[in-house]
Structure to design on (329 residues):
């Protein structure tokens, strides 16, 4: 696969995650060529306003505190747990990308198995980190948008966004754990070239996977329902599938999305018919039921986004430690 170079390169090696976050937050200089200082300041201010996470409205906090389901009562804390990490994540990130030909040239010029391993696996680490950054950004954007809609008492769009958040969270968390398991088993015997086409295809699928058209088999993305069903087999995640199916009913043009607007009956006619009042912001039991499931989905997804990001960051650090700790006889 030939991918164009569209990303600024930054020094990838770093001693710790904290240093990485600080360095990555610095805007690459060449992105600013041709812009004056005033424009740079204004853009930073605007970017900061966009990045600020929305405060969860007091009416949502109060309503969630009255639910019997503990997960719903804790959903606000879980969302803010994710938002807290987001305040430390840079708005720009330099993905140091190497296409196939670039890696081939580097490997051909390498002088030892240790150097070849370093080239290949450092490139994989860079791609994993970029994947994790993009996934976390996507997740936070979904949760922020849902929160803003909930704050003004909209409920249908947050349900659709919560459904998408669950899909992404299940995929991101599954991939993070798969990366952790795979790289934990990775070893570098002395004077041995250790490469993995399977791992490379896994990363390609995470980033470039699609279900549009007729992609190469290794790029055909797994059906999201398959991932959710697999994850739901874990006793700690058994409620994910029925919650997801409920939110799908709202996302689709089915009855739950209509009932949400049914308010009350205010008149009985002599012929037996009734006048049903429908209201855009009807406050009914079905609205509260939808709200609870939306907050459940957003809370679980938010916790999953943060956990997946932290798992992946730890995986990368361990991989870089293994690469740098190779021995040669």
């Amino acid at each position: 696969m030939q991918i164009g170079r569209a990303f600024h390169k930054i020094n990838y090696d770093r001693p710790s995650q904290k240093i990485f976050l600080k360095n990555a937050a610095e805007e690459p200089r060449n992105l600013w060529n041709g812009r004056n200082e005033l424009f740079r300041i204004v853009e930073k201010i605007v970017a900061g306003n966009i990045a600020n996470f929305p405060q969860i409205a007091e009416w949502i906090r109060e309503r969630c505190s009255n639910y019997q389901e503990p997960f719903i009562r804790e959903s606000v804390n879980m969302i803010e747990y994710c938002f807290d990490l987001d305040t430390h994540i840079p708005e720009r990130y330099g993905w140091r990308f190497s296409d196939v030909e670039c890696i081939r040239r580097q490997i051909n010029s390498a002088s030892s198995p240790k150097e070849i391993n370093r080239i290949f696996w450092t490139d994989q680490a860079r791609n994993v980190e970029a994947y994790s950054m993009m996934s976390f950004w996507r997740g936070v954007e979904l949760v922020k948008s849902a929160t803003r809609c909930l704050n003004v008492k909209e409920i249908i769009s947050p349900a659709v966004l919560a459904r998408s958040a669950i899909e992404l969270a299940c995929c991101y968390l599954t991939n993070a754990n798969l990366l952790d398991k795979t790289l934990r088993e990775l070893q570098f015997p002395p004077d041995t070239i250790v490469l993995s086409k399977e791992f490379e295809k896994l990363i390609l699928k995470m980033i470039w996977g699609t279900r549009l058209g007729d992609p190469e088999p290794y790029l055909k993305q797994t059906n999201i329902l398959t991932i959710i069903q697999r994850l739901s087999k874990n006793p700690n995640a058994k409620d994910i599938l029925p919650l997801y199916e409920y939110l799908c009913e709202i996302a689709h043009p089915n009855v739950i999305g209509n009932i949400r607007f049914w308010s009350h009956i205010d008149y009985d006619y002599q012929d037996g018919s009734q006048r049903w009042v429908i209201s855009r912001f009807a406050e009914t039991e079905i609205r509260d039921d939808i709200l609870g499931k939306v907050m459940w989905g957003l809370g679980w997804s938010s916790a999953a986004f943060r956990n997946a990001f932290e798992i992946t960051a730890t995986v990368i650090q361990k991989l870089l430690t293994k690469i740098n700790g190779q021995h040669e006889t």
User: Anything to note?
Assistant: Residues 17-324 form one domain. Residues 265 and 272 are 13 Å apart (CA to CA). The chain is about 60% helix and 5% strand. The longest strand covers residues 262-268.
